[in-house]
Amino acid sequence: QGFNLYPEVQFWVSPVGSSSHVLFASNSPRGTMLTLENIVSPQYGTGITTVVSFSTDGVFVAPTQLPTGRKIEFIGDSITAATNVVRPEGAPHCGDGGYQSDWSQTYEGLLCHRFNADCSTIAVGGTCMMRECGGLQMPDYYLSQFYADAPKPTHDFAAGWKPDAIFINLGTNDNLVIPRVGAGHFVDETLAFMKNATVWYSKPDIEFFLSAGPIENATLKFTQNIVVLAQSRGMKATFVDMTTACADARLHAPDDSDGCDGCATHPGIEGHRGMYEDAWPVMSKTMGWTADRGVGSNPGSTTYFSRGQ
Fold first, then answer.
1. How far, rounded to the nearest angstrom, does the alpha carbon of residue 25 sit from its chain's CA centroid?
2. Residue 6 in contact with residue 110, Cβ under 8 Å?
3. Tens of pLDDT along 228-271?
4. CA atoms within 13 A on the CB side of 41
5. Taking Cα atoms as reference points, which of 216, 75, 51, 251 lies closest to residue 155?
6. Would you say 132 and 173 are in contact if contact means Cβ atoms under 8 Å apart?
7. What is the 3-state secondary structure (H, E, C) of 1-14?
8. C-alpha separations of 124 from 43, 96, 107, 230 in Å
9. 125 within 8 A of 135, measured Cβ to Cβ
10. I want to staple 274 with a disulfide (CB 3.0 to 4.6 A). Which of 95, 106, 157, 245 is the partner?
């Protein structure tokens, strides 16, 4: 069964009857190129997918070489982790797993496809930047290769993969604590996190993109202040305004009173599309990147870990 998605099509792959094989495509016109892309599921378990065998009566070709200088790391909470993006027709309720948390339809998935970039995503539902939120937070998870490793520093930042850009979408959960502890903690700890990332990667020229919204917009002014302070301290930082991403899709009230179009007030397909539309012109201008691959123009808590290699 196929579902129309941005920018491609996702399939459920299940053996039929007693057969241990699944027919992916047949009777394709001569010269047709089929690409099978595996999007690793959230690391509720191992985060590892094993392909036992794959056969064709066609010809295998090497994948298209990715452009150099286009490595992007996305850091965020449940929005970036694709929580409740999709609610299939007839589904009785929202869910965090599988098709309902589909990375390919998120703002970062669309950006990666647009720029044909090499991307890594570190996102944990309910996560703050501030340690004042209590428990493990993004500074803890960021040091780990796998979600279950945190807070152990198991990721090898010197292994070779280094981002040219880091996109941070955090603040929604911090906003719940800021009234109690003050916005200064959010500003200072975000700046420290950014500086540490340049040190851990030994890459001082990382371009940071910081966004606000669209579930809550109260952290807008704090995030804008972080960008100004980061620039004053010699870091490369750009603000991306996503505060109206859901409202722009005509599926969300400007005052946030109705939540976004996905489940549990999260951005859904259109909300993430709006976030993507807000971000790509800014990233394209800042990084000097053009679209190397077209993106279609069709209109809780989750963890997603995918470290760049």
1. 29
2. yes
3. 999 999 999 999 999 888 876 555 555 555 568 777 788 888 88
4. 11
5. 75
6. no
7. CEEECCCCEEECCC
8. 10, 12, 16, 24
9. no
10. 245
Q: Output the 3-class SS for the chain.
A: CEEECCCCEEECCCCCCCCCCCCCCCCCCCCCCCCCCCCCCCCCCCCCCCCCCCCCCCCCCCCCCCCCCCEEEEEECCCCCCCCCCCCCCCCCCCCCHHHCCHHHCHHHHHHHHHCCEEEEEEECCCCCCHHHCCCCHHHHCCCCCHHHCCCCCCCCCCCCCCCEEEEECCCCHHHCHHHHCHHHHHHHHHHHHHHHHHHCCCCCCEEEEEECCCCCCCHHHHHHHHHHHHHCCCEEEEEECCCHHHHCCCCCCCCCCCCCCHHHCCCHHHHHHHHHHHHHHHHHHHCCCCCCCCCCCCCCCEEEECCC
pTM higher than 0.70: yes
Beta bridge partners of 13: none
Angle between helices 220-232 and 183-200 (to 10 degrees): 40
Task: State the Cα–Cα distance between residues 189 and 200, nearest whole angstrom.
Answer: 16
Q: What is the pLDDT of residues 59-109, one digit of tens each?
A: 877 766 777 899 999 999 999 988 877 766 655 566 555 556 677 789 999
Residue 192: what residue type?
A: A
CA 90 to chain CA centroid, nearest Å: 26
Do residues 158 and 63 lie in contact, with contact meaning Cβ atoms separated by under 8 Å? no
Q: Give which of 241, 235, 234, 174 is closest to 208, Cα–Cα.
A: 235
Count of CB atoms situated within 10 Å of the CB of 98: 12
Instruction: Please tell me the distance from the alpha carbon of residue 73 to that of residue 112, in angstroms, as a whole number.
Output: 10
